[in-house]
Amino acid sequence: MKSLVRVASGQGFWGDWLEAPRRQVEGGDIDYLMLDYLAEVTMSILQKQKERDPKMGYARDFVGAIDSVLTALVERGVKVIANAGGVNPRACADAVLALADARGVRGRLALGVVTGDDLLPRLDELLAQGHSLANMDTGEPLSLVRDRVLSANAYIGSEPIVSALAQGAQVVITGRSTDTALTMAPLRHEFGWAADDWDKMAAGIIAGHIIECGAQASGGNCLKDWETIPDVWNIGYPIVDARADGTFEICKHPGTGGRIDVPTVTEQLVYEMGDPHAYITPDVVADFTSIRLEPAGENRVRVFGITGGPATDKLKVSIAYRAGYKAVGTLVYVWPDAMAKAQAADAVLRRRLEMLGLSFDAIVTEYVGVSATHGPLAGDHPDAPEVQLRVGVRGQDKAMVERFTRELIPMVLNGPPSVTGFAAGRPKVEEIVAYWPALIDKSVVTPQVEVVR
Fold it and tell me: For the chain, N or C: smaller number of CB within 10 Å?
C-alpha cells in the first residue's frame, strides 16, 4: 500500500481550460488525473446530441485531453478517472480506443467503462413499480411531465470505479457519477478503505469536493483578495496529497500561478455545500463542521479531523424535461439618458407584444450594467454611460416566441435613439430544458463495470 497518493484535478466542467490536463501531468509526479465534466444542464445537452447522432452524448473534449497526456499514461502509469461518458459512456470509450489505435498504444491502455446510471430506458417500468420520482422541491410526481422527459440519470458513487481500478483499468469512464467519487475512488482503491469506515470515506468525499471545480480551489473565481492572486494567466490546478489515515493536503505544482491557502480552500468548501452537518453522497454522509484546515507551507493546506456517517438508502436522480421555448435579445443604449432610453424601449416593446395579442409564461427584463446582477438590491444609480437592455420571453407556443424575436430588432429605427449592439440580428428561439431533481431507492440501480482494451 502506498503511503501517499496524489490525485490531480484537470477539469472542473465541460468547457474548462484545455491546457490543464497536460499541465497537471507534465508539471510533476501524480498518480491520478481526475477530470470532472458533468453538470445537470450538461446531461440534457448530451442527450440531445445523442438523439441526433447515436455515437455522440459524451464530452468530446475528453478525447483531446487523453491525447495530450497519452505518453504519461502508457510510460509512467498515470491513471485517469473521468465522468466524460455523459449519457453514452461506451461511445466515449470507443473514441478513446480509436485514438489509442491511431497512436499505436491500443494494447497498452485498459479502459474501465461504468454504466447503469441511465434510467431513461427504465422510466416507465420504475413508475409502474411505484417509484414516483417526485420533484424534491415541489413534491409533484414525475408523471406530470413524463411525456416530456429528455434524460434521467442516477448519481452513482465510487464503488464501481473502485471495481474498475481493481480489474486493471488505467482510464475509467463513467456516466453520471458524483463529482466527489472521481477522487474518492482512487483513494479507496489504493488504501483499501472499508465501505463502512465512515470517517475515512468522508475524508475522501471532502477531498473530492475541494478539487472537483478545478482552479476554483487554487485562486480562480476567488473573492478573498482576488486582485492579489499571482499570475492567474498561469494558474495551477489543485492536487490532493492523501494518506491512508484520511488526512490530506491541497497543493499545486511549483512554478504555477494562483494561490492555495486556507481562504481559497474554504471558499470552495462552501460551494454547493447544503446542510453542513450532512453532505449526502451515495457512499457516505460527511460532516462539514468537523473539517479542520491549517497552513502546511507555501501553497499547501492540510485538511484533517473529518468525520462521517452511514449513507442513506436513496440515490439522487437528475432528470431533464422539455419545458417550452425561450428567446433572449439585447440592445445597448448609450449616454446621455441611457437608462431612461432602455426603460422606454422596454415599455414600447411590451406594449407592441400586448397589441399583437402575444402571451407568454414569463417576460423578464434586465438592465445589464445597472441592475441585472443584483436586481432590486442595486438601488438608485446615476446615469450610466451605457445600458444593455436584455429581454427574455418564455412560453409553450414556439410561434409566439418566434414572433417576439421579430419585434425586438425593429426598435433600432422605430424606438428610442442611440442604440447599438444589434449586429447579430434577431435572437434565436431555443428549447427550454428544465431540471427535475428526485430520489430513488438504491436497490433498483445496479451499476455495471466493463474493462476493455
Answer: N
For the whole model, what pTM was predicted?
0.93
pLDDT of residue 373: 75
pLDDT at 379 over 70: no
Tens of pLDDT, residue by residue over 44-73, are 889 889 989 999 999 999 999 999 999 999
How large is the average pLDDT for residues 313-330? 96
Backbone angles phi, psi at 54, to 5 degrees: -60, -15
C-alpha cell at 19: 491546457
Record the cell numbers describing residue 335, joined without a space.
Answer: 449616454
Q: In sequence order, which residues have a C-beta less than 8 Å from that of residue 379 and are 6 or more positions away? A: none
Q: What is the mean pLDDT of the chain?
A: 95
Coil, helix or strand for 150?
A: strand
Check whether residue 59 and residue 202 sit in a common domain.
yes
Q: What's the total number of domains in the chain?
A: 2
Please indicate, yes or no, whether residues 298 and 332 belong to a single structural domain of this protein. Answer: no
What is d(CA 419, CA 387) in angstroms, rounded to the nearest whole number? 10
- pLDDT digit string, tens, across residues 218-271: 999 998 899 999 999 999 999 999 999 999 999 999 999 999 999 999 999 999
Instruction: Note down the domain range covering 46.
Output: 5-117+155-312
- Classified as helix, coil or strand, 248 is strand
- What distance in Å separates the CA atoms of residue 414 and residue 411, rounded to the nearest whole number? 5
Regarding whether 377 and 266 lie in a shared domain, the answer is no
Q: Evaluate whether residue 143 is within a structural domain.
A: no
108 & 224 share domain: yes
Q: At a CB cut-off of 8 Å and minimum separation 6, what does 142 contact? A: 123, 127, 132, 133, 134, 135, 149, 319, 436, 438
Give, in order, the Cα–Cα distances in Å from 159 to each of 103, 154, 294, 447, 451: 31, 14, 30, 9, 15
Strands 32-35 and 79-82: parallel
DSSP state for residue 429 in the 8-state scheme:
P
Q: Is the pLDDT of residue 302 over 70?
A: yes
Q: What is the pLDDT of residue 357?
A: 96
Question: Is residue 446 included in any domain, yes or no?
Answer: no
The CATH number linked to 364 is 3.30.70.260
